[in-house]
What we know:
This is Sodium/glutamate symporter. One of its GO terms (biological process) is L-glutamate transmembrane transport. Helices cover 76% and strands 2% of the residues. The protein is an all-alpha fold. The protein has a domain at 91-266 and 295-394. A two-stranded parallel ribbon has the order 1-2. Helix 1 (7-27) crosses helix 3, helix 5 (86-120) packs antiparallel against helix 12 (300-325) and helix 8 (157-187) packs parallel to helix 14.
Amino acid sequence: MTLALNQVTTIFLAVALLVLGTFLVKKASFLQKFCIPAPVVGGLLFAVIATALKATGILQITLDTSLQSLFMLTFFTTVGLGASFKLIKLGGKLLVIYWLACGFLALAQNVIGVSLASVFGIHPLIGMMAGAVSMEGGHGAAGAFGQTLEDMGIQSALAIGIAAATFGLVAGGLVGGPTVKYLITKYDLKPTETETVVETVEEKVQPITSNTFFIQVLLITFCMALGTYLGELFSTATGFVLPGYVGAMFVAVIVRNIVDKLNPKAIDMKSINLISDVTLGIFLSMALMSIKLWEVADLALPMLVIVFVQVVFIVLFGIFVLFRLLGKNYDAAVMVAGFTGHGLGATPNAMANMAAVTGRFGPSRKAYLVVPIVGAFLIDVFAMPIIITTINLFK
């Protein structure tokens, strides 16, 4: 028996699973500890149930996920609108070094993924899905690029990317603290500050009004329209695959920094972040619940090996390279904790790692300034071109 859900019912189900995931995360301390996103919990739960129903021959569920791309496009556009280069001045030299290190990490993660894929005899782009896409990119990039690769005919890319992102998220939470504790103990590091101050770079937040909200919607839809159009033109002219959401994101980066020059108050990040959270939640929920788990059983071992190597690499890079580049002091050690968190998972993972370290050993204002700026916004400026280039090299 087959149950076919239409477009509206699929969206309803995605939102319901998102709400269910939020409830489960609040109830399960393990999920909170490792910052597992609510849509991942709800979506994967449905995917497991759907797989069981299909395997037992009871029911096969088909979904209409045609609007998933719209939510995905909107989310990546909001990421671009958050990338104000004014933030670089706030972080100074340390931010630039950290940012460049994140760019190198994206390149290294793709090299590791593609190289090990050839060892296992699987498609190089499947290896890439366990590289920068799912490690630095997290679930959002894994869902987006996974769908792009499946549209190109590479089966199981989405499921592999989501699974790798989930394992990376857990690993990032597990290894960050011990890595930094090793550095602090070995070099007898002490914080230079006496008070715990978490510094944010957000301007004074004003209440959201319908007028300011619609201005943000205007900017977002403009960037979406222009970005997808330019992306299609670029792909047609060069034969180089450039997904529409990537084009929209980079147009949004340009628009944000132009608007900052003309009218800095025009961008309301509270509204942008609200739209970002909603669209990411629904997009991820739809991506997760539509995964065909039965298609990835044969790729489970290669994926786990690749993720394990990624974890070992980022720990060694953090200890022997990044720690020294950032000044070989307490602030550098705390930033290594953040780097491990979002280099394998997501920015909330980075913040959780740093909170655990600073809660025990003392504050680090520099780390709390640099890591969120790069992890949440600037990282994609390097990571996206590296991922797109890898896709075009091995398509």
